[in-house]
Amino acid sequence: MDHPFRSAPLGGFNKQDVLAFLAEQSKQAAQAQQQLQEQLEGANRQAETLRQEGEELRRRLEEAQRELETARQGRDSLSAQLEEAGRELAASREETDRARRELEESNEKLAAARAAGRAPQEETEPQGEAQEAAPEEAVPLPEEPPEGKPEGKLTVPKGVDVSADDFDDDAP
Question: Under a CB-based contact definition with an 8 Å cutoff, are residues 158 and 136 in contact?
Answer without folding.
Answer: yes
